[in-house]
Design brief:
Layout lengths: L6 E8 L2 H11 L3 E8 L2 E10 L8 E6 L12 E10 L3 H11 L3 E4 L4 E5 L5 E7 L22 E7 L3 H12 L2 E8 L2 E7 L9 E6 L13 E8 L2 H13 L8 E2 L3 E7 L5 E9 L18 H4 L2 H6 L6
Parallel strand pairs: 1-4, 5-8, 9-12, 13-16
Antiparallel strand pairs: 1-13, 2-3, 3-4, 5-9, 6-7, 7-8, 10-11, 11-12, 14-15, 15-16
Helix pairs in contact: 3-4
The protein binds zinc ion (ZN).
C-alpha cells in the first residue's frame, strides 16, 4: 500500500483578512505564496502561506470568513499546529513575541513556544534538529536563519482514537510511534515511515467525555496529506474506501489535485498531490502578489473581487 510522506498543507479559517496577512506574513515571516478565493465559495478569500515556493509540508492556508463566529475547539478537530524552527532560534522568537505583544508560554525546556494567532488558533514553534537542513525564507521582517521551516507536528483531538488511528495506518500508511499520558489526555504519536523532513508527525489526543468542537473563526477546516502523484492518490482512495470511508472524486485545486474524506472522529482529511505547485501561474519573484483565479472563474473576476471582504 502507498505511504504518505507527510502533511501537505493545513487549511484554517481566519476572521479579518488583513489581520491574518499581517500576522502570518509580517509577524511570523511566512511567505504569502498565493492569493486566491475558495474555489468552492468564491465569496471568501483563500490565502496560502509557506516557504519560498510553498513546498508541501510548509503550507498553511486560510479561508477568510469575517462573518463567522469564533470556533470552539473540541473533538473532531485539529487543535494545534507546530512549526519547526532551527535549534537556538527560540530566544529570537521570544524577544519578537515580547516586542509584538503576543502572549506565549514556554514548554519542553524552552525549546517550544506555544501561542495563538489573532483569531485564537493554537500554534507552536518547536526547535527541531531537521529544521536547519531546510531552507529558511528570508522575509522583509524575519531573517532566514530563524524562519519557520514548515509543519513539524499537528495535534488532533478525537473521540475515537482507535478509529482515527486506522485511517492513519491503513489509509495513509503511517505508524504509531508512542503512546503516553499527557495531562488528562492519552496521546498517541504517529509518524510517516521514510517521512519527509517536515510534516511527518502527528499526535492524537483523546480522553473520555470529550465535547464536540464547533467550527468557526480560528478553527482548522481540514488537514491535507501528501500523495506523490495521481496514481498514488488513487491508491489512497482505494485504501480509504476499504475502511468504509467515502472519499470524494478528484477536485482540481490548480496548485494540486485533491480528494477529501471525513475520518471516523470527524476531522476532514484531504489527500493532495505534490504537483504542480504554486509556480503554475506566477513567477517565483511574484508569488502571492496578484489575485489568481482558475480559468473557469476569470470571466467573473470583477464580480468575484467585488464580493470579497476588504483586506485593508
Ligand atoms: Zn486543502
Amino acid at each position: 500500500m502507498p505511504v504518505s510522506s507527510g502533511v501537505h498543507h493545513i487549511t484554517a479559517i481566519c476572521g479579518h483578512p488583513g489581520r491574518a496577512l499581517d500576522f502570518y506574513g509580517r509577524c511570523l515571516g511566512l511567505r504569502l505564496v498565493k492569493k486566491t478565493v475558495n474555489f468552492d465559495d468564491t465569496t471568501a478569500w483563500h490565502f496560502y502561506f509557506g516557504d519560498e515556493i510553498g513546498s508541501p509540508g510548509s503550507v498553511l492556508t486560510f479561508f477568510a470568513r469575517p462573518d463567522l463566529p469564533r470556533g470552539e475547539p473540541g473533538a473532531g478537530e485539529v487543535v494545534s499546529i507546530a512549526f519547526a524552527i532551527p535549534e537556538g532560534s527560540a530566544p529570537f522568537w521570544i524577544d519578537l513575541f515580547n516586542d509584538e505583544g503576543v502572549p506565549f508560554a514556554l514548554a519542553d525546556g524552552g525549546r517550544a513556544i506555544a501561542f495563538h494567532d489573532p483569531d485564537g488558533l493554537a500554534l507552536e514553534l518547536v526547535e527541531t534538529r531537521a529544521a536547519a537542513n531546510l531552507p529558511g525564507y528570508e522575509s522583509q521582517t524575519i531573517p532566514g536563519e530563524h524562519a519557520l521551516r514548515g509543519i513539524a507536528n499537528t495535534t488532533l483531538l478525537v473521540a475515537d482514537a482507535a478509529a482515527t488511528a486506522r485511517a492513519l495506518t491503513e489509509g495513509l500508511g503511517w505508524e504509531p510511534a508512542s503512546h503516553a499520558r499527557f495531562g488528562e489526555y492519552m496521546r498517541i504519536r504517529f509518524t510517516a515511515p521514510d517521512a519527509a523532513e517536515i510534516g511527518g508527525a502527528l499526535d492524537l489526543l483523546t480522553r473520555a467525555d470529550l465535547g464536540k468542537g464547533k467550527q468557526g473563526v480560528g478553527s482548522v477546516h481540514h488537514i491535507a496529506f501528501r500523495a506523490r502523484n495521481d496514481a498514488e492518490q488513487a491508491e489512497f482512495a482505494f485504501a480509504v474506501r476499504a475502511l468504509g470511508l467515502t472519499p470524494t472524486d478528484v477536485r482540481d485545486r490548480k496548485y494540486f489535485r485533491s480528494i477529501y474524506f471525513r475520518e471516523p472522529s470527524g476531522v476532514l482529511f484531504e489527500i493532495a498531490t505534490d504537483g504542480p505547485g504554486f509556480l503554475v501561474d506566477e513567477k517565483l519573484a511574484k508569488l502571492g502578489t496578484g489575485v489568481m483565479l482558475p480559468a473557469h472563474y476569470e470571466a467573473r473576476r470583477e464580480e468575484i473581487l467585488a464580493g470579497l471582504a476588504k483586506v485593508g
